[in-house]
From TrEMBL:
Secretion signal span: 1-29
Keywords, alphabetical: Membrane, Signal, Transmembrane, Transmembrane helix
InterPro entries on file: YcnI-copper_dom, YcnI-like_sf
Organism (species): Kribbella koreensis
Residues in YncI copper-binding domain copies: 30-177
TM stretches of this protein: 198-218
Domain of life of the source: Bacteria
Protein name, UniProt field: YncI copper-binding domain-containing protein
């Protein structure tokens, strides 16, 4: 291959990698929610990942809104050193049955306020909730959040995507229930899949090399017979 084509291909590859890294960095800068054990009808730990997207200011306050149409009968907030946590209860528009319990009011917001420092610039922290029971027959739950910085800036992560192609600038943290799996299951599946794939690749490579060797051996044999 000509040297110019090699250099051009390398440049395109590098540019593509930079674009992908930039996109990944932008996506990871959002306030997000995840869970190691979320299953419809069960109890779960919710983890809110909060990055400080500032070079000079720290995150000093986080307010998370829980779904009112699918309220939780139980809400436990993570106690963090250096943070004050407040749970706010609100009367529901109508009674909602959650498991064996009928709720007329529920905890609707959780507020963490830094007593000193907060989340430093360009760093992140995680805030946990223990909730239940999770609703059944629901694919996902949205948890709008409001992030406040030490310089007074307020970022509202409240935009709900209309569909899979919609990419709002400040999306509300969303938890997928139908696809939630535990880290142990995910790790086991990944290791098994990787080992199986590697074995197949090595097996295919060995078979190919064997066929090539056989072909070369037959060709050499024919050559020796023809030579006087």
């Amino acid at each position: 291959m000509p040297k110019s084509l090699v250099l051009r291909a390398a440049a395109i590859t590098a540019a593509t990698a930079l674009v992908l890294v930039g996109a990944a960095g932008s996506a990871s800068a959002h306030v997000t929610v995840s869970s190691p054990d979320a299953k419809p009808g069960g109890y779960a730990k919710l983890v809110f990942r909060v990055p400080s997207e500032s070079d000079t200011a720290s995150t000093t306050k986080l307010v998370v809104t829980l779904p009112k149409d699918h309220p939780f009968a139980h809400v436990g907030a993570q106690v963090k050193d250096g943070w004050k946590v407040v749970k706010t209860t609100e009367k529901l528009p109508q009674a909602v049955k959650v498991g064996d319990v009928t709720l007329t009011e529920a905890i609707t917001t959780i507020t963490w306020t830094a007593q000193a420092g907060g989340v430093p610039p360009n760093d992140f922290d995680e805030f946990g909730l223990s909730v239940g029971k999770l609703p059944e027959g629901v694919d996902s739950l949205d948890f709008p959040a409001v992030q406040t910085y030490s310089d007074g800036e307020v970022v509202k992560w409240q935009q709900v995507a209309k569909d899979a192609s919609d990419k709002p600038e400040h999306p509300a943290p969303s938890l997928k229930l139908a696809t939630a799996i535990t880290p142990v299951a995910a790790t086991t599946e990944d290791k098994g899949g990787s080992s199986d794939t590697l074995a197949r690749v090595l097996g295919g490579a060995g078979l190919l090399l064997g066929l090539v060797g056989l072909g070369l051996g037959l060709r050499a044999g024919r050559t020796r017979k023809v030579t006087p």
